[in-house]
Amino acid sequence: MNLTSLFSRKKQQVPDAISRTATVRASGEKALVYEVANLQGIGNRARQEDAFAFGNALDHEAITERGLLIAVADGMGGMQGGKIASETAVSSVLRSFQDFDMKKSIPEQLNNAVLEASGQVYEKLHEAGGSTMTLGLIFRGKLWFSSVGDSFLFLLRNRRLTRMNRSHNIRNRDYLDAILMGTIDAETAEKDPERRAITQFLGMEELEEADFLRRPLKLEPGDVLLFCSDGVGDVLDEAELTQCLSHGDPGEMCEAMSREIKAKNLKLQDNYTALVVQCRRE
Question: For position 72, which CATH number holds?
Fold first, then answer.
């Protein structure tokens, strides 16, 4: 199996990297092909702590038999082992993917891969570093995913952008229910500087929560999937992302996101990573 894994590089080597892979065609899906591309930049951080990978992206036969794997991991910059954590997590899920049995439960195997990755990060760092992860698998025209932390997964369909996962943070854990119950107002909750603090991450001694799809999403021609770190998802708003993902092919979409991020010129711009998968008719 061809595993294409693309990790981070130092700023002086690659200030902003946009890569493309060949179009992937699954023989069992005559009307649907996938084209992928990726974007990665260091932002205004000292080093790159995001990692990402495609599994089988360059292998037509392998994607037909075993699917296309997409992974984004964001090392937690406040921890000394963020870079080690993200790269360990991505390496771990790629190894797990080699042992997937496509006749068995895909959601269960994805979830187990994420739990295994978390255990691997913990064994190396003992909570001195951690990572988020959004992990997807496209197989026979359907998407499954699992996610931990605050990396993003978006679907653009018919020019409507939908976030497919949620962030594991204080806002979603503590405030949404409180707002509905009336014990706190939304304005107060949104002013809390800790509202985006992550509550679940790979590398915790006991990972308690990982989101995953039990039933897959059937993909359609024209669909665009965006897997990205919060350096993209928290910087570009829905309208900006929709506009970027409406540009031609995935490489052009990545270039559009790069331009938008750089145009904002944020003083505290985080590392940013984006993986785009476009579904289209052959």
Answer: 3.60.40.10
